[in-house]
Amino acid sequence: MILKSLALTDFKNIGEASLDFSPKINCFLGNNGMGKSNLLDAIYFMSLCRSFTGANDSLLVRRGAQFTTLRARYFRRELDEEVSAAVRPGQKKIFRRSGKTYQRLAEHLGLFPVVLLSPADMDLTSGEPAERRKFIDQIIAQSDTPYFNALVRYNSALEQRNRLLRDQCSDKGLYEALEMQLEAAGEYITTRRRENISRLREIFTPYFNTISGCGEEPDIRYVTADYSADGGLAAHLARLRDRDLALRHTASGPHRDDIAFTVDGMTVRRSASQGQSKTFTTALRFAQYDLLHDVLGIRPLLLLDDIFDKLDAGRVERIIELVGSSESFGQIFITDTNRRHLDETVAGLRHADDYRIWSVEHGAFSPIES
Length: 370
Fold this sequence. Notes:
The protein is of the alpha/beta class and 370 residues long. Helices cover 42% and strands 23% of the residues.
């Protein structure tokens, strides 16, 4: 899959931009706060219908503007396709594919896959379990519509049960109905998480070893409770209902699961250096890319936002070699404040003339001649 062009109006700090991209590597050079990451966020938004920052849609509209519009042209599965989007604060965002408006945005997920590496990925190793659940959920949801639907059903039942707990409801029948819904959706969620984490681990390890250049042993493990002793999640929740009433929330279930990241048996969150953590998250994203490619049959867009920060020269060199010379990746978008990193990446290309570089300043994009 190739993103051929992107046109933006009043998106974050970008007043207006219209860019035609290289099918291989596209580089954006500029100081922090100039709009490089905002362009990547626009590409991400067109794929997943949300900002990678998690910001409310109204914050995507440039200050002083009434709305933002985006239009992307892709070459996907041997066909030209156009996707457009419009966001107006206080109204439902609108996505169209080939001129037809989506009734449910979930229909768009997985059609134009994207993988993003950014400084915020450090939250995967240092943050709370919710960050790691979101990571695996987004991978699976792009390739498995039933999984997305199971998440929606589970979260809806969870919200209703928590509301009953907060209200100190004593209606046993209401609890039982919701607990059965949680078990039915939860079984599918945990099964698919376990399967995908196992596949991810196999792909991840070689990437980690290549980037690290050391003899370290990384591991990824799904941490989930076993409710079989209680006869399943519904029975477990029924047995601990008084506890949850006291807590006023549901303290058990797939929404409490975690993914353990370790190197040489030590938890990355507690023992790894910044360089090790950055190596771990970079390898995770490359593994995510390969997994989505295998499942979907098309190459996702790869967005690399300031990825060389906090890495020593050796690891930077090995990442550049992976990105620049590997045939594994398709179209790539890279931001950096360092022209040398971009030049070294381009120099490693198999087809060194197949790239474009832009200078970014205050939301404006100017081509740089090679």
